[in-house]
Design brief:
heterodimer; A: mainly alpha; ABC transporter involved in vitamin B12 uptake, BtuC; 14 helices; B: 515 residues; Rossmann fold; 6-stranded mixed beta sheet
């Protein structure tokens, strides 16, 4: 086989998610009253990147065969924090942004430490820490409110050169600065190896713990970037429990749509981004076709079910039935 | 050898797992530039020995020296750094990563802090070429490769780490003949480059071709060390035997007449590349053993009978009638009445957190219930019978089965199936990891069940058990029945020589061996 075919096989999940997204987005814009205009794209992008950041965060943890049920809450907590800190002079704003990102990093590091060194199951550990993060958010913002540096917010949610949505540019920059180096570093490979077969990785002398710790920590950072953007869009902070929970669950859906295996070791954050954008577009599609918004959860569920079923076909090829349960 | 410190030495190494001693004051000397073969039967301590060397397990006592200096390895990574690289029997490859990723996994080449993929590719291609496996594409995912190719990747990975001591644990077991000869050429070249190689294999012809020095292990001790070729196959087998008989077996009744109709019969069973044309019969009242080295298809054969494998070819007959067993629940049904005591009771036999009572009734629930409602009184009666019959020691029926000792857990697994009064009982190494007292009870029970009319097919890695319990033993090698031993023919010598696929009792060295 030629090199490119191996590359294609490896990227299949990502490409599939990309394809699903493009098809849905084309249907969406072609039926939109305004059509494919900078405005429509900007609005879609601003809605989509929030879930995209949270889904990237989820990807990092899922790759290690874990799951992070606190990403939505880190997203909320950092939103509440940003509505206090990201204000004032450019200098104060900068420090505020750094503080918010540092808190996200810390939340992720706490998750990682509990899972790796405390040897707790990720699902339990992150439900607990998620509740804690939400609790802190609630103390910070018992009622919706606060403000944000509007100049910065407008730049980051506006358009570059009048056409390209700035939020998309930031997303791309984050992919280049965080995801690409991580996935190509020794730690990233350790995270993949630990997710695929922890025993084999251990036997090969791979730094499993450091790899997993890096994955959880960066997940916290990515979720906090999402939280910042939420603040830029809404100009306020709000500890909205239901919203945090749905971000967590949608991030898992986006990751699965994006071809990331929940068993670990396989997939890419880029796939998850397209998964997130596609998932968001489902809602918009219903809008342009004048469906009652009440239909949205049902349709999202059906699309998700179809997408994950595609991945289950491999089970038909298993010859030893005991392998079904591995 | 004369005065100068050897490259590597182990002295007085002991290791216990619970009450089982895996190594008892073992000694080993490894010289540079030679191939050292380690021999011994199942459970002789070979695997533990190399796990100690490779930093996977820490010894309880004893010391190791490398270049005359004391060495301890806290992890496989530490042993690798010291130049000791092991190719394990259970492959240590990460399935979702590519071949190249795997080959460089312990120490990937870096550029600007990131993994240098071009350099990685180059290293991988070189290593694959050195291992004689240039046909494997470095970008292929390991999980997509067949077992024999994976083993070649494993060897390439070891070579890429530039070892000083290379340990091969059954590294050729899944290879094709062509690959084996390539690997042999590679190993001989490495020897001439001054590496020390430890070679663990059950294939006598491979050892005859490769080894300079041999060490035989038995019961966790090294019992003999000798230059290769200085002993005949028979003398080697003699050295490997010689364990004390520590178990008491029930007397065997007169053989079931060969004319009796078989209860269970297989005709030319084949599956994937693991089972080849296996034909056998088991009659009611008979205990038939499955012998041979670990992993020669015994487990797959039992799974095939029990309806777990798909794409099985050949025929299974029960009481002379062909049947199609498509799942374990078909296998256990009235018409067939089969039970399988699995190898791993923790995952395939029991639900550890559930109670003893629940575990016991699982397999028999359909018999104990009417219209979906469990008849609690009938359940209790049957459970009481079983607990009594098997003398299960438990503080109560409503405690989690995970709280029982290993031996009692195994009794629960067996009792669970006996509640259905099976006519055919398949046992997959049922005494592994349980205490001697319980073993004895199981031997008695097996005979009692056979006397009551059950047909029993019994796989064991313990030769004593096969000798003590079985009316007949089928020895498997490479997924095929190599030999059938009946009655007095079942001796340790016969079992070992046929397990190693040495024909006849007195074949001279190097003859009559085909792997």
């Amino acid at each position: 086989m030629k090199d490119w075919r191996y590359w294609l096989a490896e990227q299949r999940g990502t490409l599939l998610a990309f394809g699903i997204f493009i098809v849905m987005f084309v249907i969406y814009t072609s039926n939109h009253p305004a059509g494919f205009t900078a405005n429509v794209v900007q609005t879609a992008s601003n809605k989509g990147v929030l879930l995209a950041f949270v889904a990237m965060a989820q990807t990092l943890v899922v790759i290690t065969a874990g799951i992070d049920l606190s990403v939505g809450m880190i997203f909320l907590l950092t939103n509440c924090l940003a509505s206090w800190l990201v204000v004032g002079t450019p200098m104060q704003t900068t420090l505020g942004v750094i503080a918010v990102l540092a808190v996200g990093l810390l939340c992720g590091a706490i998750n990682g430490a509990i899972v790796i060194y405390g040897r707790l199951q990720p699902i339990v550990a992150t439900i607990a820490t998620g509740a804690v993060y939400y609790g802190i958010g609630l103390l910070l913002r018992p009622f919706p409110g606060g403000s944000v540096n509007e100049d910065l917010a407008d730049v980051l949610t506006g358009r570059v050169f009048g056409v390209v949505p700035a939020s998309l540019v930031v997303l791309l920059a984050i992919v280049l600065v965080i995801w690409v180096p991580f996935s190509r570093s020794v730690l990233g490979r350790a995270a993949y190896a630990a997710g695929s077969s922890e025993t084999a990785a251990y036997m090969s002398g791979v730094p499993i713990r450091r790899g997993k710790f890096a994955a959880y920590t960066l997940a916290g950072l990515l979720a906090s970037i999402g939280g910042l953007f939420l603040t830029f869009f809404t100009y306020t902070g709000e500890a909205a429990y239901a919203s945090g929970n749905s971000y967590t669950l949608f991030s898992i859906a986006a990751v699965v749509l994006g071809g990331v295996s929940l068993f670990g070791g396989k997939g890419s954050a880029i796939g998850a981004i397209f998964g997130a954008l596609a998932f968001r577009t489902i809602g918009d599609l219903l809008f342009v076709f004048d469906f009652d918004p009440l239909w949205q959860p049902l349709f999202q569920g059906v699309i998700l079910l179809v997408a994950v079923s595609l991945g289950a076909f491999a089970l038909f090829r298993v010859r030893n039935r005991l392998e079904w349960f591995l | 050898m004369d005065g100068a410190a050897p490259l590597f030495r182990m002295e007085g190494i002991s290791k216990r797992y619970g009450g089982v001693r895996a190594l008892e004051k073992a000694e080993l000397v490894v010289e540079a530039g030679s191939i050292h073969a380690i021999l011994g039967e199942n459970g002789a301590g070979k695997s533990t020995l190399i796990k100690v060397m490779a930093g996977v397990v820490a010894p309880d006592e004893g010391r190791m020296t490398l270049d005359g200096r004391e060495a301890t390895f806290a992890s496989p990574g530490a042993a690798n750094k010291a130049g000791i690289v092991c190719i394990f029997q259970e492959l240590s490859l990460v399935p979702e990563l590519s071949v190249a990723d795997n080959i460089v996994i312990s120490d990937p080449p870096k550029r600007f802090g990131m993994i240098d993929r071009k350099a990685q590719r180059r290293i991988a291609e070189e290593a694959l070429a050195r291992a004689g496996a240039a046909d494997i594409h470095p970008l292929a995912l390991v999980k997509d490769l067949p077992l024999s190719r994976r083993q070649m990747v494993e060897i390439a990975k070891a070579l890429a780490r530039k070892p000083r001591i290379l340990i091969l644990d059954e590294a050729t077991s899944a290879l094709t003949a062509a690959d084996v000869s390539k690997i042999f050429a590679v190993l001989k070249r490495l020897r001439s480059e001054g590496l020390a190689l430890l070679y663990i294999s059950h294939r006598m012809n491979e050892i005859a071709e490769l080894a300079d020095q041999c060490t035989v292990f038995r019961n966790g001790r090294n019992v003999a060390s000798y230059p290769a070729g200085s002993k005949s196959d028979n003398e080697v087998v003699e050295l490997m035997i010689g364990r004390e008989y520590s178990h008491i077996f029930p007397p065997k009744p007169a053989a079931v007449p060969a004319t009796a109709a078989p209860r269970l019969e297989a005709r030319k069973l084949s599956w994937a590349d693991r089972l080849h044309d296996i034909s056998l019969t088991v009659r009611a009242g008979e205990v038939v053993g499955l012998g041979g080295l670990d992993g020669q298809g015994q487990r797959e054969l039992l799974l095939a009978f029990f309806g777990v494998l798909r794409g099985l070819s050949g025929q299974i007959l029960i009481d002379g009638k062909p049947v199609s067993i498509t799942s374990p629940s078909v296998a256990r049904d009235e018409g067939i009445g089969m039970a399988l005591i699995p190898e791993d009771r923790k995952t395939e036999g029991l639900m550890l957190p559930m109670t003893v009572r629940e575990n016991l009734s699982f397999a028999a629930l359909d018999r104990l219930s009417k219209a979906g409602i469990i008849d609690r009184a009938a359940e209790q009666r049957l459970i009481d019978d079983m607990v009594g019959l098997l003398a299960i020691k438990t503080a109560g029926l409503d405690i989690p089965v995970g709280a029982l000792s290993g031996g009692n857990q195994q009794k629960v697994v067996i009792a669970k199936w006996l509640m259905r009064q099976p006519r055919i009982i398949l046992l997959n190494d049922p005494t592994r990891g349980i205490d001697v007292g319980t073993k004895q009870e199981l031997y008695q029970l097996m005979r009692k069940l056979a006397d009551a009319g059950a047909a029993i097919l019994f796989y064991s890695t313990d030769y004593d058990e096969l000798i003590g319990c079985c009316d007949r033993v089928l020895v498997l090698y490479d997924g095929a029945v190599k030999r059938e031993l009946v009655g007095a023919e079942i001796t340790e010598r016969a079992l070992i020589s046929s397990a190693l696929n040495i024909h006849g009792e007195d074949s001279p060295v190097g003859l009559g061996v085909d792997a």
